[in-house]
Each structure stands twice: as C-alpha cells, then as structure tokens.
Amino acid sequence: MSPKNKVLLIALLTVAAAGWVLxxxxxxGQRGLSSSSTYSSGPxxxxxxxxxxxxxxxxxxxxxxPFSRLDRDQGVLLITNPDQVPFTSREITKLKxxxxxxxxxxxxxxxxxxxxxxxxGESSHGEGAAxxxxxxxxxxxxxxxxxxxxxxxxxKIFNTSLPGLDEPxxxxxSSAFRWKRPLGAWKEILGDxxxxxxxxxxxxxxxIVAVSxxxxxxxxxxxxxxxxxxxxxxxxxxxxSNHLLFDEYHHGYGIEESLWSYLGxxxxxxVLLQAVVGSALFFYSKRASYSGRFxxxxxxxxxxxxxxxxxxxxIFKSCGAGSAALEAILARFLAQLSRRTxxxxxxxxxxxxxxxxxxxxxxxxxxxxxxxxxxxxxxSEAKPIEALALARKLAAVRTAMEPVPRVMLKRYxxxx
Length: 416
What we know:
Blueprint: H1 3-34, H2 47-55, E1 60-63, E2 76-80, H3 89-100, E3 104-108, H4 129-132, H5 135-141, E4 147-149, E5 155-160, E6 169-174, E7 177-179, E8 187-192, E9 195-203, E10 206-211, H6 227-235, E11 244-247, H7 258-265, H8 268-291, H9 306-318, H10 322-341, H11 367-378, H12 384-399, H13 406-415
C-alpha cells in the first residue's frame, strides 16, 4: 500500500473511532440513568446485584425471551420495573401457569427518574387516566395489585425479618410508592401508615412477592444498611439452589435483537468498522494500481534497461573502467537469463542457448558468441566505447528475450 493510502486509512479510522465513541457514550449515559436492567451500571440499574450473585456462585442468568417461553426454566423470576417492552395477555397467562407449578415471582415496581436526579414521569404511577396507560400498572392489575404515588422521595428505615435471617434486617426503602388497600388475597409483610411496601400471596404451588420500591435492589441503594442481606434472603427463601432469572426482555434486551445489541454496545463494532474500511481501501488501491490510476514506483530490482546500462557504463567510463562496467552488466544479464530459461547459473553454457532462447528484433542472435565476446572484452584492456556498445547490445537482447518453451527445458534437463 502506498504512503498516500496509508495516510488516508489512518485518517478514516480515526474519524470512525471518534464518531463511535461519541455515539456510544451519548447512548450509554442516557440508558444507564433510566434503566433498571442488569446491563445498566447507572444508579438505577441492577448490574451490581447480578454480578454479586455470580460472584457467590449462585445459578443466575438473564432471561431475554417472552414469558411464553418460560416453560423450560424453573426457579425465581425477578422483574425490576421494565419500561421498554409491554406485557402481553398471553405472557401474563403463561407466567401465572409457570408460578402455579411451584416457582416464585419477585416484583420490584415503583420508581421515577426524579429519584435519581432526572425528570419525573417515565415510570410514575398516578391515578386515573395516567394509570390506565401505564404498562407496569396494567401488569399489576392482572395480579390484583395497584400502586399509589406520593410526592415524598425520601427513604425510611425499617427493621424486618424474613425466613432465613438470623435477626431482623435494617433496610432502607423509598417513600414514593405504596401498594393500595384492600389487597384481597395478598398478605402484607412490611408496611407503615401510608400503606404496604412488601406483600406476598400464594398461587397454586408457587408464590409471588411484590415490593413497591424498584430502587431497593439498584446499584445506588444495594449497599445501604442491610438491603443486600434482605434481598438474598428473599430470593433464596425456598431453595438456595434455585435458578435466579432476571427479566431483560421487557427492558428491551430480547434474544431476537441480542446480536445487534452486542454489536452496538461493545468495542466489536469498532473493530469490525476498522476491518471493513481497511479491506475497502486495500482492494481499491489494488484495483486502482492495475487500472493505472496511481501506482507508486518501486525500487529498481534486477533492471537491465538501456537507462540502467547507460548510467552504469557512464559511471565506469568516467572512472576509466569500461571493462569493469561490462563485467557487472554481463553478470546481471546471465543471472536474468538463468531465471528466464530455468537453467541453473552454474550449469549455464553459452553453447546450449543458440536458437533456443530468444530472438532479437527480427534476426536470430548468436547469444553464445555475444557472451564469449563480452567475457573477452571484460577480461582485457578494451576501450570504454567498445565495452559500452556490448553492454547496450546485451540490454537490447534482454528486452526482446522470450521464455524458453517447457519442452526445450525438459530436453535440456534430460541431456544434462
């Protein structure tokens, strides 16, 4: 690749890298602020909890399929305030059947952007018309739950116990949401005068636990007080070997688009872009060089043109060494002749070349005689002009040289 193409390639890759970094940085910052996904490392995300469960070697995974495909998985399903993909009626029916077979559903609903310093409204659960259009509220209604919203975003400390805890845990919960009463089949585990925070109910052989604070297991709040201890007790209450599934499909990380999500959120897209741009420039440069648009001149290797002969001979002529010039040019000619004919240089005999190697202009050239004459002049004190004439003659013969037919090469090899 020519220096021009190399500079162009570096410039294009630099521009592409800068654009990718700006785009990825802008998107990741917005999503990290608002999403409760385990892929999010922002304050609202649940990535810290997911990685911690992996670290203590629990069976945990991200579920990136609709709930209609839950049949093959058993254990505990966590839903953490998703706001990208709505829940369908078919999914909810399948989910209820999955719970009835002895599985557990844990819901963390109730969070607004205002809690983490953003603009309120994305996930707020108000009364009236606003509640009817909220996908999370519609999901809750299918299980007999309803959230009520308060303007207080402060956090309160509670002492609460769960099976598996040696002593009550001191946990911190938001005051922004509470479950409405009456709860019907739901049983309150934790609450205050404003309403219930944690409720549970049986459904067939399984059960459901609903927490009215989606920030409780978040990256920002997990380390406060004993939130982590209480969360682990909640998830592992029935069986410590349970498979823990985090719903990511409704956060927008469905398995159908997981490949594109990976390509758009990793350095792989930059590497792929480099490969594409580099390949395009490489093939373009090759095509352009063959078509004659631009082709850098390489260093003259093994050239025996009249230009080379003249320059070499003139140098030696100015030094009064014409025979030395002819000797150097003859050695180069014989080396090229050996490559053209396929005959090793050590076994190259002038007598074997006559009439079988090449034609000079329109007349046969006595190659053997020419080589012998050049060797004679090179070994004597001939005049520079005579040596230069022979050198030019060698160059003319070399220009008109044609490859020896393979049949002749075979005959030569058989004879030798």
